[in-house]
Amino acid sequence: MTDSEFEALADTALAHIEQAIDASGLDVDLQSKEGGVLEIEFENGTKMIINRHGAAKEIWVAAKSGGFHFHWDGSAWRDTRDGSELFAALSRLVSAQGGQGVVLRG
Predict the structure, then answer these.
(1) CATH assignment of the domain containing 40
(2) Which of the residues 20, 68, 92, 100 could staple to 61 if both were Cys, CB 3.0 to 4.6 A apart?
(3) Conformational region of residue 25, where left means phi above 0, alpha means psi within -120 to 50, and beta covers everything else
(4) Is residue 106 part of a domain?
(5) How does pLDDT run across 7-57, given as a tens digit for each residue?
(6) Are 4 and 12 in contact (CB under 8 A)?
(7) Is residue 103 part of a domain?
(8) pTM of this structure
(9) Looking at residue 26, what is its pLDDT?
(10) Domain that holds residue 22
(11) Is residue 66 within 8 Å of residue 85, measured between CB atoms?
C-alpha cells in the first residue's frame, strides 16, 4: 500500500469514527486535530487518542486500558495482537472508559 492509499483509508476510518461517536449520544468532547488525530475527552476527565501512524501504516489507539495498533488487512482494520476489528474494539474501549455501553459502527 502506498502512503497516499494509507492516508486515504485511515482518514476515511477516522471520519467514520468521529461520525459514530457523534451518533452514539455519548457526552464527550471530541476534537479532530491536524495530521489525522482524534482526541476524545470523557466526562470523567480521561482521554483517548486515535491517530494514523504513517510510518507503520497503522491506526493507533491510546486508551486508559493501554495502546492498540490496527493494520489494514484488505477489508478491515484489525488489531495487530488479537485480530479484532477496529470498531468492535473501539466499542469495547469507549464503553469501558466512558462508563456506559455503546456500540460504534463504521
Answers:
(1) 3.30.920.10
(2) 68
(3) left
(4) no
(5) 999 999 999 999 998 888 888 999 999 989 999 999 999 999 999 999 999
(6) no
(7) no
(8) 0.92
(9) 85
(10) 3-98
(11) no
Question: pLDDT of 61-97, one tens digit each?
Answer: 999 999 999 999 999 999 999 999 999 999 999 999 9
Type of residue numbered 57: K
- Quote the CA–CA distance of 5 and 28 in Å, as a whole number: 30
Cell numbers standing for residue 29: 468532547
Domain tally, the chain: 1
Grouping H, G, I as helix, E, B as strand and the rest as coil, residue 35 is coil
Got the DSSP string for 47-83? EEEEEEETTTTEEEEEETTEEEEEEE-SSSEEETTT-
Phi, psi of 64 (to 5 degrees): -60, -35
Residue 39's nearest CA partner among 97, 102, 83 is 97
Q: Is residue 104 included in any domain, yes or no?
A: no
